[in-house]
Each structure stands twice: as C-alpha cells, then as structure tokens.
Amino acid sequence: MNIAGETVRAVATVGELPYIEEPAAVAPRDARDLSRLFFDRLAVLEEGTAEYQYARNTLIEINLSLVKFAAARYRNRADQMEDIVQVGTIGLIKAIDRFDLSREVEFTTFAVPYILGEIKRHFRDTSWAVHVPRRLQELRVDLAKAAAELAQRLDHTPTASDLAAHMGLSEEEVIEGIVASNGYTAGSIDMPADDAPEQMGNALADRLGELDPGLEGVENVTALKPLLEGLGDRDRQILRMRFGGEMTQSEIGEELGISQMHVSRLLSRILSRLRAGLLAQPAA
C-alpha cells in the first residue's frame, strides 16, 4: 500500500487492516495517513473483537509521537517526564476513543488539546495539596510576584490593601487568593495532635469523621441532569433501557429494531457526549 508517497509492505493482515510490525517506529507523516485508514475501519468494527483491539492499539502506538511532541514543552521538568508521558498517553487514548472522521478535522489537531489538557490536569491535581479553582491557582502566582516587587519598593511586607491597589483588585479578591494559597501545601493528618488526651489516638486522623459515600453520587446526578435533558428522546430511551432497565445491547436492539452493533455505536456516542459535557463544566 502507498502511504505519503512511500510504499509500506504488509506481510500480513489483521482482518482487513495491514499488520504493522513496529507501530511506534512509523514516521509522523505516515502515521497521519495510516490513522485515517485505521479510524475508518474502527468505526465499523464491534468493540471487544480482536480486530477492534488491534486497530485501537495500533492507533495509540503510531500516534505516540504526538505525546512526545506535547511533553517536550515540559522538558524543564525532566524528573517528571515519565509521569508526563504517561498522563499524555491517557489524553491520546481519550482522543482516539472520541474522534470521528466525519468531523473533517485532522486527528493531530483534535488530539493535541486532549493530550495537553490531561498533562495540565495532572499538574493541577498533583502540585496542590488541596484542589482549588484554576483562577485562584493563577492568582497565587500573581500575588507572589506582586508581593516580592512591593516588598522591595515599600521595604516592608505588603498588606492586602497594598496588593489590591497594585494589582487592580479588590481586597476581598486578594484575601481569597491568600487563603487559597494555603492549600498549596498541607501538614500530614498523621502528625501528633498536641491537645489529644492520652487515652485517645494522638493523631489528627484518629479524630476525623468519614465522608458520606452517597455525596459523590448526588453530585454526579446533579451534573448530569442538564446534559441528559439536552439529549434526544431516543438517546434518553437507550440510556434508560441500558442503565435503568439493565437490558443488554442485544435486547435493546430487538426493542428498537436495530442491530446490536448499532446499539453499541449509539451508546458509545451518547456516553462520549456526556463525558465531554462533564469535562467541559467549570471546576467547583
């Protein structure tokens, strides 16, 4: 077969796809054309089949260069590069699972934001001891720069009102940023508590309550409700049958007069849309 002006010889095939002996060694220019071929086939394959797994795994391997390209901008964090590549690969996999050739968008254009988003999310989740909104994370950096500049100019530690006037913010916003900055690091809950009676556990963790396991379910239902309302009647019916009625894909297909494979594709599309909607929601 001819890819990007070069001939790629397939000594074997998997189903209707060529067998790529070393997918990770495929040049980026060839990977683009191969990706179109594999995505086109993946769209009609039934999930869980050997050919489906081969197509999906090969797409991941031939596009790993995108992860390395995105990770290169973080080369100043060489000690974390292995983790960066791992989370970037998760972003690549998400992009592959959500890509649709009918969008007429190059896969590289579609995938890079997913990869970078996953890497940035990794830094947000691992750099801070307590999760805070992104605007407050960014405000912490701005406050640190402003405080250092004002300390030299004023010859004393700047107050909240000094910082507010310098940064063009209200005092309330500055105070909120200072309080949020305390979440960047945290003490261990296993540290001894000075006021703990001898007969009780002397660590703070021994005196903490437990989280209600039902809270996460309530949050998820609340977040999904407007997204479900935005679906069509048939999509909502499929979700009710699959997750409310616990029907198999074959049973749903018989009920709607469509094939099991069609039900599988519809469910994949619906769930991908819901996931994208949840990810697009602003952090609480």
TrEMBL record:
Annotated ranges, domain RNA polymerase sigma-70: 83-96
CDD domains: Sigma70_r4 (cd06171)
Keyword annotations from UniProtKB, A to Z: DNA-binding, Sigma factor, Transcription, Transcription regulation
Protein name per its UniProtKB record: RNA polymerase sigma factor
Protein's organism: Streptomyces varsoviensis
